[in-house]
Structures are given as structure tokens and as C-alpha cells.
Amino acid sequence: MDIDPRDFADSMTRWIHVVAGILWIGLLFFFNWVNSAFAPTMDAETKKKVVPELLPRTLYWFRWGAAFTWLSGVILLGLVYYMHEGAGKDPFQMFGAEGGWNAGGIAMIALTFVAVIGYDALYKTGFKKPPIGFLGGWALASVIVILFKVVGDFTFRAQAIHLGAMFGTFMAFNVWMRIWPAQRKIITAIKNGEKPDGDLAALAGLRSKHNTYMSVPLVFAMLSQHSTWAAPIGDDFNKTFLYLPAVILVGWLATYALYAQAKRVKGF
């Protein structure tokens, strides 16, 4: 039996993507809902012994899980959407009524991957406070979803997966460019019996929290590619421009509730 190279590459890449994603997101939830409550219970001596041994090991799998999840996700995006013969006519239907590639669609694909520059700049300046960061982030993500439809002529599935790709890019950037560099300095300070830089701790904590919030709608975006229940509204613009922003909001409210529950869980 002949094996289609593209189907083989698709299957293997999906396998890597899911396994790496489980590793990455599992450790992300551990950091935010388990370790964040446990770490403050340790005294200075305990931290000096535990942190330099535990966190470098954990962060190794965390950052490489992020790298392989993001890289395999980009490859899948290309295999499923960009390299498929007759884009706009395949089962995933990238483009809407117009069909085929267009300048707006290419611009929106570019935005998916360069929006991280704006995200990083905004959360260094005016979006630092939690209420502003929450509402501002939701509003901007909603605008981008609308642009996917209006400018790029993306179908619902294309909107969802590119939203997920954008969040995934933000998250991988945070891991490698913000969380890991900060944690490396924090761990070294604790190992040397010094007080970690409070600004670095705040930065790492904030970006890790951002990643936790973004991970929930990101998982929905992945699942929506494989089941029709995720898009019961079809591709009617008057409905789709509300649907994904609502998914983000519900996901973020659920994440907020899980953070609250994490604070109530106690050790023996």
C-alpha cells in the first residue's frame, strides 16, 4: 500500500504536537495552580535547597515542551491550510465566499505571527494592572477575530485556528523570552542565599498567568478543527464575529475561577 508523504507528515506532526502540548500545558497548570500556592509556604532555607533542584528540571521540560508545541503547530498550519491543493476548497475551508488566496488573508496570517510584538509592548506599559490587562486583552483579541473575517475572509475554522496560533505564539514567546530568562536569575539568587529581584519575579509571574489564561481558548481553537459542534453557527459573519470573543471570555472567566479554587486547596 502506498503511503502519502503528506498524510504521514500530518499524522506524525499531530502526534508530536499533542504530546508536547500535554507536557507544556500540564507544567503550566502545575506552576500556576499548585506551585504558586506551595512556594510561599517554604522558609528561606527550604527554598535554598528545593528551588535550585526542582525548578531547573521542571523548566527544562516546560520550555522545550513549548518549543516543540509551537514548531509542530506551525508545521501543521502549513500542511493543513497553506499547502493544501486548492486552498479555500478543502474540507477545512480556509477562505469564505471569495475562496482562494487574497492579499487580506496573507496580511492576517502575517498579523497572527507579528502581533506578539504589540502584545509584549502593551503589557510592558499601559496594560499592567489586572482589570485593564484582562479587559484590554479581550477587546484586542476580539478586534483581531473580526479582522480575520472582514480583512482575511477567513471561515470560522480558519478564524479559530489562527486565533489559537496567535495565542500559542504569545505563549511560546513568554516562555523563552520572558519567563525562562527571569526564572534563571531568580533561581541563581535563591541558590546564593540572596533575595530575588522583585521586578523579575513579578514579570515571570504575570506572563505565566497570561499563558494560563490564553491556554484555555487555545485548546478550544484546536478542538474546533475536528468537530462540527464547535461551530454550530456556520460562517454567518453576524454570528461568527461574536462567537469566538464569547469563547475567550467564558474561558477566561473559568480560568479565573480555577485560580480562586487553587488558593483554597490545602496540604495535609
Structure description:
Helices cover about 75% and strands about 0% of the residues. The model is unreliable at about 85-90 (pLDDT under 50). The longest helix has about 40 residues, at about 45-80. It has one domain (about 5-265). With about 270 residues, the chain is mainly alpha-helical.
Shape: globular
* Share of β-strand residues: under 5%
Radius of gyration: 20 Å
Uncertain residue segments: 85-91
Binned, the helix content reads over 70%
Mind summarizing the main beta sheet?
A: none
Number of domains: 1
Order of H and E elements: HHHHHHH
Q: Could you give the count of β-strands?
A: 0
Number of H/I helices: 7
- Whole-Å distance between the termini? 58 Å
What structural category arises from helix and sheet content?
A: mainly alpha
Rounded average pLDDT? 88
